[in-house]
Amino acid sequence: MDSSEFNRIVEKYIDVVFRSALSFCKHKSDAEDITQNTFIKLLKCEVDFESDGHIRKWLIRVAANESKSLWRSFWYKRVISFNDLDHEPEHIEPIKSDIFAEVMKLPTKYSSVLHLYYYEGYQCDEIAAILGISESNVQTRLMRARKMLKDKLGEAWI
Length: 158
Known about the structure:
158 residues; mainly alpha; 0% strand
């Protein structure tokens, strides 16, 4: 991959990767590290991508795997973080910021599927492939996450 193609991909997908990483790990600094590692892996990879959609899915999958690696790391298991999510990504409209904040408060397995479904526009089968879980598991997580948000926010979030 040449540098101009790499730069094009980074510019186009850095927000997608960062938002996905943030939904997986919930901390801005960890999401930044995951985003950086994801693009380093892209630079080193030898995959021939079929389309921009293929690149996007690959990047989100790598970000998910990097998040899992972070959770398994010795450092993450031994350190208590004092950093809380202190702001939303700039792309989120102010009206939806309360909803986004509530989504980020959900357990990761629920916030990640909500993020991929509503914010990134993936279908359940695509989310299943990205996260490496079954499609019925994705649907169950979406149903439970929606119920949790409904209990917290009432009908206003829909």
